[in-house]
Specification:
By secondary structure, this protein is mainly β. The chain has one domain. 5% of the residues lie in helices and 44% in strands. It contains one helix and five strands, in the order βββββα. The chain has a five-stranded antiparallel sheet with strand order 2-3-1-4-5, with no helix packed on it. Strand 2 and strand 3 form a beta hairpin. The two termini are 13 Å apart.
């Protein structure tokens, strides 16, 4: 049985210049990169100053850390 536990923090998905301002010690930080950009998922409170774009108000579940928009979060928890 899969247990879904909501994580209470809200997250942001950011495109960043580089990872120099990212606190990798935070338990809820995810980075990803392609040949065209560097991406970051982090708590809203930890958005770095060098963020080029920011999409706020994402929420996650403590399973495989599935992200969903905060506005849809309660409805998604009903599964």
């Amino acid at each position: 049985m899969l247990t879904i536990k909501p994580i209470t923090e809200e997250f942001a998905i950011c495109q960043v210049e580089d990872y120099s301002q990212v606190n990798m010690e935070n338990p809820f930080v995810f980075t990803g990169a392609t040949d065209e950009e560097k991406s970051l998922v982090c708590p809203i409170a930890l958005i770095p100053e060098n963020a080029l774009t920011v999409d706020k108000h994402w929420s996650a579940y403590n399973t495989d850390y599935i992200l969903t928009k905060t506005a849809d979060f309660k409805e998604r928890c009903k599964c």
